[in-house]
């Protein structure tokens, strides 16, 4: 939310011409030759590009006690002249009987280690261990939000294709923008977040995503869908975005199905569908009410894999007006000229949903918990 806000504010009023679908090289094209690549330790290095981009490392927690949490480091560079870093966290009130616990704090004296694998700032460290399979996230930046978490990868990480990146631009050799995602879909989590009111026990299961958006957010995507689904045996993840008409309203979808120690399937031949929607009067966007996610491809041993997750989203957890804190005149310019009106809808149904997985002739159905987002930008 913060990087959308900052980059939109800095470039309000910009709108791209229609380049057409030939100006985007989707990661799906790479996936036709190499559906996915397992992550090695040094694939997790911070990029810290010197041009306009936003880089995030996001950690999602589904604790055994039902607590749902997101913590994140945001490193952003605006036009190559202004670099900022923030730590954000959100402890969701999944019962709907109170406010979410949201914090976003700027970081001071931030820096990377020599290997670019770990990140530090005053009263904060996010470190990757020597084996490259465990992140430690510690923050005392905000005394009302003391974070102490350990994420240990329990299934292989991956990127789709060779490098997980979609490239934008009319010159294939010199792209002017990019979008990439790297996943640790299934992790074991230990630790706590301590606020002034209580200490939240966050032992359970988690997901880690490293994302780099190397262009302005409203130029890269008009809409997003994201799902993180965890069952006792399986994890399903999908990240889908649709470009603005300037890039042919191209749909880019990356995702996979994993279980402990194994990637069952990963690739770009997936789909996210809003089966039912209702116009939300607060945002004037079609808020999804029920969804269907489908993963389809081949396993490593060339078996057909199909997985499906379908059901009602129930009451939304939150609706975020990304531009709410941007000055009114910038908001009006961004909306009227750049066409940007970003809202994020977040969901975690109270009722368990069922993931149906078919691997060759074997069929498995398992219930689990879901966190999903539907984002509308322009």
Give the structural class: mainly beta
In terms of per-residue confidence, which ranges show pLDDT below 50 for 5 or more consecutive residues? Answer: 9-13, 329-337
Rg of Cα set: 20 Å
Provide the residue-averaged pLDDT: 92
| CATH homology superfamily name | AttH-like domain
Question: Span from first to last CA?
Answer: 15 Å
CATH class: Mainly Beta
Count of separate DSSP helical elements: 4
Look up the CATH topology: AttH-like fold
- Gross morphology: globular
CATH architecture: Beta Barrel
Number of domains: 1
Strand share of the residues? over 45%
**Strand segment tally:** 27
Q: Share of helix among residues?
A: under 10%
Concise structural overview:
Helix content is 7%, strand content 54%. The chain has 378 residues and is mainly β.
Describe this structure in words.
The protein is mostly beta strands and 378 residues long. The protein has a single domain (2-376), classed as AttH-like fold, CATH 2.40.370.10. Helix content is 7%, strand content 54%. The protein contains four helices and 27 strands. The chain has helices at 2-10, 27-31, 217-220, 328-336, and strands spanning 24-25, 36-38, 53-63, 68-78, 82-92, 101-106, 111-112, 119-121, 124-128, 134-139, 146-153, 158-160, 165-168, 177-194, 199-201, 204-213, 223-230, 234-242, 251-259, 262-267, 270-280, 285-298, 304-312, 318-321, 343-347, 353-359, 362-376. Strands 1, 3, 4, 5, 6, 7, 8, 9, 10, 11, 13, 14, 15 and 16 form a 14-stranded antiparallel β-sheet that branches. Strand 14 and strand 15 (199-201) form a beta hairpin. The longest helix is centred in the N-terminal third of the chain and has 9 residues, at 2-10. The protein is globular, with a radius of gyration of 20 Å. Residues 9-13 and 329-337 have low confidence and may be disordered. It is found in: Cytoplasm; Endoplasmic reticulum membrane; Golgi apparatus, cis-Golgi network membrane; Nucleus. One of its GO terms (cellular component) is endoplasmic reticulum membrane. Belongs to the SVF1 family.
